[in-house]
């Protein structure tokens, strides 16, 4: 059996399922991510010539695939947010980014050292890769399509957090890399980390997102030539925005994830053409579903191939504590004083989904420095993501529906 032709068949089935399965499980606690991980595990147990699903052996391929999946998701997230950008209107977002995220990183760092016995570099990496919420797997807790609303405090906070923190986790990943290199005799250059990895890459990424996003918005919506791009049905424009902004940001050595999300926000909020934003969002979601389906199948394949073989009972306890305690507590602390009902506050705190972004950061770091206990680190991160997929996947839709009913009753 030819491995390439088999891969094409499986990719086609994955695509069909990504479009079809969500309608089948609409009234079912099972979700697309749960089913696809299970399917991937099943397929990889069969005696078939499949593409190896081992991120430890293929970190560069893992980095590139997960990078693309997160990028496309970030464009979609930015295009879907209707709430006008502002300090007060986005106060929940700033709380999650400024309080919850650092607390999560510190908790991962402390538990990694005290409980798992990792070095400072490895523990820092563990906290950094698990800190950001995921824009790819969090569909049940995100806002609706452009112009369709659904921007209650829970959905808005989790969607905007997922958009920003996939870029803001990067300074701490770079810090983990610097700490790992320091074990080889290279001292940590703290001034370089602060000026380059924190200030320049963050502020530069945001600036490039604003400038390039605004330029693309003018090209799309303000062209004097007919027909303009905004009057077409070319969803490919969403992919063009992704690649152009990301390419410019990375060439300038800034954070491309942050730039892409900011650019999508600028395009969405500076131009009110809901119809074309809907076209862009639909195409972005289609690309996102394709990449998500492939990632989840490969995750299932990694599980079947023994990615968790290096997992200890301490790692299992860490994963449970991180998903069920660390994020909820950090989220609650970050929202103290926020003017939202207690049930909304708990929902925001609990439903911080971990996913594809964590795999990207881990593969990225592994490609830039040597980390001891790398196999166990992969096992722990995979365990956290699998638990998040199961726990949040089985509960998010029901909880969000309950919250919606409570809001309608109050209205």
Structural commentary:
The chain is mainly alpha-helical and 411 residues long. Helices cover 71% and strands 0% of the residues. It has 15 helices and no strands. It has helices spanning 3-24, 32-43, 59-80, 91-114, 120-130, 153-168, 170-182, 190-221, 236-251, 256-270, 274-304, 313-334, 342-350, 356-366, 374-410. It starts with a helix and ends with a helix. The mean pLDDT is 87.
Task: Give a concise summary.
The protein is 71% helix and 0% strand. The chain is mostly helical and 411 residues long.
- What is the helix tally? 15
Poorly predicted runs: none
Largest sheet data: none
Structural class: mainly alpha
The portion of residues forming beta strands comes to under 5%
Order of helices and strands: HHHHHHHHHHHHHHH
Rg, Cα atoms, Å: 21 Å
* Helical content band: over 70%
């Amino acid at each position: 059996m030819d491995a390439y032709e088999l891969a094409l068949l499986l990719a086609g089935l994955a695509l069909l399922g990504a479009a079809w399965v969500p309608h089948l499980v609409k009234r079912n606690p099972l979700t697309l991510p749960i089913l696809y991980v299970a399917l991937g595990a099943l397929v990889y147990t069969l005696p078939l010539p499949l593409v190896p699903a081992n991120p430890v052996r293929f970190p560069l391929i893992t980095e590139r695939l997960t990078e693309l999946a997160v990028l496309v998701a970030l464009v979609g997230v930015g295009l879907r947010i209707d709430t006008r950008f502002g300090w007060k209107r986005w106060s929940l977002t700033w709380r999650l980014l400024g309080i919850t995220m650092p607390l999560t990183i510190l908790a991962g760092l402390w538990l990694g050292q005290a409980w798992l016995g990792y070095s400072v570099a490895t523990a820092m990496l563990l906290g950094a890769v698990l800190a950001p919420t995921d824009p790819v797997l969090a569909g049940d807790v995100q806002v609706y399509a452009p112009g369709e609303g659904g921007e209650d405090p829970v959905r808005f906070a989790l969607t905007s957090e997922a958009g920003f923190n996939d870029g803001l986790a990067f300074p701490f990943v770079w810090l983990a890399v610097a700490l790992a290199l320091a074990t080889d005799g290279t001292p940590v250059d703290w001034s370089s980390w602060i000026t380059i990895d924190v200030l320049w890459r963050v502020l530069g990424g945001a600036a490039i997102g604003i400038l390039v996003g605004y330029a693309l918005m003018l090209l799309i919506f303000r062209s004097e030539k007919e027909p303009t791009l905004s009057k077409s049905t070319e969803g490919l424009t969403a992919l063009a925005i992704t690649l152009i902004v990301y390419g410019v940001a990375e060439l300038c050595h800034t954070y491309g994830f942050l730039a892409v999300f900011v650019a999508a926000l600028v395009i969405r909020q500076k131009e009110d053409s809901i119809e074309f934003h809907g076209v862009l969002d639909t195409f972005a979601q289609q690309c996102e579903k394709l990449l998500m389906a492939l990632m989840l199948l490969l995750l299932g394949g990694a599980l079947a191939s023994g990615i968790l073989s290096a997992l200890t009972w301490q790692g299992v306890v860490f994963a449970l504590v991180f998903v069920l305690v660390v994020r909820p507590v950090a989220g609650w602390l970050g929202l103290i004083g926020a003017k939202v009902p207690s049930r909304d506050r708990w929902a925001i705190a609990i439903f911080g989904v971990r996913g594809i972004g964590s795999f990207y950061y881990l593969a990225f770091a592994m490609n830039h420095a040597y980390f001891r206990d790398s196999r166990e680190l992969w096992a722990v991160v995979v365990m956290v993501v699998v638990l998040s997929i199961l726990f949040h996947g089985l509960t998010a839709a029901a909880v969000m529906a309950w919250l919606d009913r409570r809001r309608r009753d109050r209205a």
